[in-house]
């Protein structure tokens, strides 16, 4: 499933990469906690949602489960055919849209994130890219977030616009 690094870099420079993005949540709308990972990034050490690319021949459900296992050593409670809460794009600044389109900043690639709100089955144990994992309430989100994560959380309806104003 892995491509040589030089070929993958060429692909990233040439076409958008389709990814799954997900946010573990617990509680209900009146008392919701949002799960984020701490990771190293092109923006330094930041908190962000989870996810990554979908492999050829892999369903979105399987991609979500693989990334949850790789990053947190947990499974997810998912239907057979999960549907995204939002579709969000990530761009390097040099090719980012200038027409008012909402997007996140990813200097590595242009990606299209199928974004899901999920429930975790198990106790998250951060590993691989995750340096830490925590649940946060809307009024206690960390200030160091990957650029675009806060907008994504609002657009996924995980946060209300008033939660972080």
What structural keywords apply?
globular, 3 helices, alpha+beta, 165 residues, nine-stranded mixed β-sheet
Description:
The chain is α+β, with helices and mostly antiparallel strands and 165 residues long. Helix content is 18%, strand content 34%. The protein has helices at 5-14, 60-72, 149-155; strands spanning 17-26, 33-41, 44-48, 50-53, 75-77, 86-91, 104-105, 111-121, 132-137. Strands 1, 2, 3, 4, 5, 6, 7, 8 and 9 form a 9-stranded mixed sheet that branches. Strand 2 (33-41) and strand 3 (44-48) form a beta hairpin. The longest helix has 13 residues, at 60-72. The radius of gyration is 15 Å and the shape is globular. The N and C termini lie far apart (43 Å). The model has no long low-confidence stretch (mean pLDDT 93).
């Amino acid at each position: 499933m892995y491509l040589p690094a030089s070929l993958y870099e060429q692909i990233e420079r040439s076409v958008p990469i389709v990814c799954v993005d997900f946010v573990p949540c617990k509680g209900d709308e009146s008392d919701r906690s949002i799960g984020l990972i701490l990771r190293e990034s092109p923006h330094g050490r930041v908190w962000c949602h989870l996810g990554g690319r979908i492999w050829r021949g892999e369903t979105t459900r399987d991609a979500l489960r693989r990334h949850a296992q790789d990053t947190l050593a947990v499974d997810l409670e998912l239907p057979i055919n999960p549907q995204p809460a939002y579709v969000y794009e990530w761009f390097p600044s040099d090719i980012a849209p200038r027409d008012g389109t909402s997007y996140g900043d990813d200097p590595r690639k242009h990606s299209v994130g199928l974004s899901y709100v999920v429930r975790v089955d198990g106790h998250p144990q951060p590993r691989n890219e995750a340096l830490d994992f925590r649940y946060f309430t809307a009024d206690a989100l960390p200030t160091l977030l990957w650029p675009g994560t806060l907008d994504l959380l609002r657009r996924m309806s995980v946060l209300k616009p008033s939660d972080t104003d």
